[in-house]
Amino acid sequence: MAIVAAAGLATSFTASNAGAADRTAPLPASGFNQPAAVQAQQALTAQTATALGLGSGEQLKVRDVVKDPDGTEYVRYDRTFNGLKVVGGDLIVKRKGESIGQVTYNRGAKSVGVATKPTLSQSAALAKGAQAAQKTAQFKATDTRSKGQLVVFVTPTKPVLAYEVVTTGVKPDQTPSVLHSFIDAKTGAVLDQDDEVKTGTGNSMYSGTVSIGTSGSYTMSDPGRGGNYTTDLNGATSGAGTTFTDADDTWGNGSTSSRQTAGVDAHYGAQLTWDYYKNVHGRNGIFNDGRGARSRVHYGNAYVNAFWDGTQMTYGDGANNARPLTSIDVAGHEMSHGVTEATANLNYSGDAGGLNESTSDIFGTAVEFAANNTSDPGDYLIGEKININGNGSPLRYMDKPSKDGRSVDCWSSSTGGMDPHYSSGPLNHWFYLASEGTGSKVIGGVTHSSTACNGATITAVGRDVAAKVWYRTLSTKLSSGSTYKDAREGAINSAKELYGADSAQCKGIEAAFNGISVPAGAATCGGGTDPEPPTGDNLLKNPGFESGAVDWTGTAGPITNNTGRPARTGTWKLWLGGNGRTATETVGQSVAIPASATSAKLSFWIRIDTAETTASTVYDTAKVQVVNGSTTSTLATYSNLNKNTTYVQKTLDVTQYKGKTVTVRFVGQEDSSLQTSFVIDDTSLTVS
User: Is 337 among the residues known to form the active site?
Assistant: First the structure.
């Protein structure tokens, strides 16, 4: 542990286990080994794919496992189809042992099967991808090169065959770029773009005299934190750089006259960020497997930025090479891009791009507060000390994002079309409202003032609560194509899991999302009942499926909140079929019908759409059954011939089962081709 001088300030600092004393978020169970958990779940992927009813050409690959102390695991999977990578086909399975509970499909992609023969040639796709990359990134032409492969790309409405064209180059401001352009393999249209290099900015080097982890041979390598190490690029824009070494383990002189000083700040920031994630969230490094990461400093010439490129953090020296971007919140921001990549892997476009960028602002800010460094006290300003605007103003304001002239305070349907650094505004605003509430106050010596978009007065639940809720949302609820609406659903459900549905924390998290104008969905605090529950004395539990698969048993996956088909009320429903291949799905609930009943009625709403074109042949069916002991009776059968894209209520007489405990069951069956979707919602079984 070396003592170093950074930025010429003499203040001493001793690191602490921030948040450990009041930890309430679930941490990995004692002895939990994340790499081993990934390996164990990978061995079960074939079994899991069968349980989920995935097609024969679909295979799963485990990317991440989060485990609660009670043994519940959130397993994140990527998919392939007939050997092709499925971009946007990731899913999260909540399971305990072999029992599968809730399944969350990215963009509602329950099935990802497509015809795999392209119309567009690879050479044409490469040309279109390179052209699109040049328009987006404005590469120096001599620096670009492209490669491409066929993939399945999941759009918000359906999966399509596409080419993933990867164009590597350097932007005019020296930022490297590895831009993925997805080109429709039939039409040649550009479906989406995503850059591996995530950029961000922060404070300058003002951390005072600090302690950093180094190795016994006096190299800037930290064996206690997975081998985090820091290198000097010496103006280069590629390569690993040279690891800093020193003769006496006293590093830097607090100014740019020593090349070590920027390395000290970057190394110290990486150390603080590692400790924050481990002590507060139980995460063992960026990838949660104990591995450290490299920080590179002195990138390029007068480069006014910092970035994460998928494996490492890189920092420029700022305007005139005088203000290196290597402070605490910059390190927290960039390393958090890595955590996002290893968990939700949020795209860098659409709503997901704003959520991605804001996540780094949120945790960069949380690390700055946790550091408790008197030379750089925590606040809710991003980049306030680098003076990149030349007038002393910060890059971003979390209390009122629109103060930067480009970000927005409130979510709207147009937010996803903005640059991620500005579409991050609503979530940054949410974090501030949840952490500090509305009104004016002085924080870290800075006056902050915030108002809610809906005009409400919001009471703070505290920064630690907001950060813990958001980390759980990121690591167990969101996927690559998630939206602000998904973020709201995930955060409220995470708050319910952490603190309880009736807790002040849950209600504060919900109120803060109301405060940034994200529309309400199914998730609510205070019990989470159906928005429009069936009337009468309903004997069925969770009748509108809004609690997920709770109280219902059978095939995993059909009870879902994916957006591929609408729910009648809320966002959850029972979606049978929709696979376009041979499949049988069954979901049921046991219910006792009183012997005193004079009548008993089973009611539900059903919506049917189909790709079958026949007007006379039944190919796909949904049956409503009652299982009484060993006897199964079919009360009604619906098929592709009954298509109706609006919900219709059906009522069936089950009086004959009074005095018995029976299972009400819905069974969907599809043949080998062309989908039919039977979507059921708002069930009830009432007696009189």
Answer: no
Residue environment code for 82-114, b if the CB has 16+ CB neighbours within 10 A, otherwise e: eebbbbbbbbbbbbeeeebebbbbbbbbbbbbb
Query: Which residue in 267, 421, 429, 448 is the catalytic one?
Result: 421
Residues contacting 58, CB < 8 A, separation 6+: 49, 79, 80, 81, 86, 112, 113
**Contact status, residue 18 vs residue 275, Cβ threshold 8 Å:** yes
Alpha carbon distance, N-terminus to C-terminus of the chain? 76
Residue 10, domain member (yes or no): no
Set 334, 341, 384, 670: catalytic member: 334
| 104-140 pLDDT, tens digit each | 999 888 889 899 999 999 999 998 888 888 888 776 5
In tens, the pLDDT along 594-635 reads: 988 888 999 999 999 999 988 899 999 999 999 999 999 999
Catalytic site includes residue 421: yes
What range defines the domain where residue 601 resides? 553-687
CATH number at residue 137: 3.10.450.40
Report d(CA 544, CA 395) in Å as an integer.
45
Instruction: Clarify whether residues 263 and 366 are in a common domain.
Output: no
Question: For the segment 11-61, what is each residue's pLDDT rounded down to a tens digit?
Answer: 222 222 222 223 334 444 445 677 888 998 999 899 899 888 888 899 999
Paired sense of beta strands 583-592 and 661-670, if any? antiparallel
Residue 266 lies in a domain: yes
- Clarify whether residues 232 and 289 are in a common domain: yes
Residues 572 and 513 in one domain: no
pLDDT of residue 169: 81
Pairing of strands 145-154, 84-96: parallel
User: Among the three residues 342, 362, 381, which one is the final residue of a domain in this structure?
Assistant: 342
**pLDDT over threshold 90, residue 429:** yes
* Predicted structure pTM score: 0.67
Same domain, 331 and 357: no
Q: Do 460 and 482 share a structural domain?
A: yes
